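Lab notebook, bench 4. Still working through the backlog of constructs that have no structural model yet. Next entry is a single chain of 525 residues. Request: give me the structure tokens for it.
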Amino acid sequence: MSFQLTKKQITKEIVQSGRDPSYFINNYAKISHPMHGLIPFKTYDYQQDLLENFNDHRFTVILKARQLGISTIVAAYVTWMMIFHRDKNILVMATKFQTASNLVKKVKAILKNLPEWIRIAEISVDNRTSFELTNGSQIKASSTSSDAGRSEALSLLVIDEAAHVEGLEDLWTALYPTLSTGGRCISLSTPNGVGNWFHQTYVDAEANENDFYPIKLPWDAHPDRDQDWFEKETKNMSRRQIAQELECNFNTSGETVVHPDDLMRMATEICEPKHRTGFDRNFWIWQGYDPNNAYLISADVARGDGQDHSAFQLFNVNTMEQVGEYRGKISLDLFANLLCQVGKEYGNCMVVVENNSVGYTVLDKLIEAVYPNLYYALKSSHEYIDPVQAEAVSNSVPGFSTTSKTRPLIIAKLEEFIRNQLININSSRTLEELKTFIWNNGKPQCMKGYNDDLVMSLAILCWVKDTALTTNERQLEYAKAFIGSMKVSKTKLNTTIPGMEGYKKDEDFAKIKKHHDQFGWLYKG
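Model written out:
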């Protein structure tokens, strides 16, 4: 193409390309197509908008579906930045080092396939995962190690598949100062549940609570995709895969312990408490005490390191509806007093306290207060035992023991209750904890930086309701049935009625009387 342009035209083209990345990409960039090989890069409207946003905003967070060419347009933008700007330092990070190096390879490929006359900067240092241009601009792929980019002043940070990068919260804390001199950041990813850095950053960006500009690109942003395409693509995909790969849905994309559909259903049932009380206003109440109902309190006590909360759930066990909830950072003695007070207000209902190290302190204070209805269990089998019987049993312990044996059981019971709609949750705090309660390497736990105090107290409550209370109810029914069957009949047997047992005809009575008159003396003495 250079032989068709005069020197003046070439200068004009270089100037125009340097001013406008869209002009440069649509006229001179080429990309590799899986079917057609090397083709000119012609941007779609949504890619065009992205280029403008990259220039207009220092920080951009892109929530995207799969196969929209977002990584390719980012690579083209990086190529433009490196060629037409001196001394730009660009770092690419991703969940896998290979993913980051692939983006660097795309930049290198676009650069090498440009017309020679527009390559005003050439590659001077070329490595497998990094290279440098003669104008001082450089790009490097990096793993997500704790020291990635820490000592460098960055012009642009690209985080690919950010939702899937573990520990990105800590990485961002280290990387942000490297952008303080005016550097930019482009974070892009498909969703991967809630609670991670990418989710929080995107949500805060939508609420204008951080410096990021949010962009959402679901599957239908591509002009060549319609409903028929969607139905064909999703035919063999799970609901979670569809949410993650195509719909840009945070809530249904993660590996949450509770199914995303159940979380969405529960979100429609959330309501504001009627009262917010307690010294810290963290005790939420939806319903007052009704003597016609039975209640249950389940408590999880904070470890004491300031990282989690003490919490309890208060439920109507007749309807299994949440009527009260507490979560806060409270001293152990005040927490014990609160449990005692609430338990008495709700008919001296059963109080279940997890008996971890600090939980025993709360239990001791409840015992000192002579609370009449504490949960006890056998130490060996973890089976519930009546508080009165517990006094005479040596291996009984107050409270519920969460161990490697019981933890999977109570969480499975919680999931079962929610899945079968046997429980009604009113609290937004409980729902938010459920959204960040995930499977991590096969273990159910909260995401890093989040808490599960309300979830665990709810799980214990579901277990106790389905075991201890159900067993008690069954035994009471058996006892009632047994007692009901024990009757004393005062009805005298009338042997003169035909068909009745012992029935005797009149002539039979006459014979018996005659016999008695003749030989009655034998019965005397």
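Notes after review: The domain at 263-475 is CATH 3.30.420.240 (Nucleotidyltransferase; domain 5). The chain has two domains: 17-253, 263-475. Flag for follow-up if needed.
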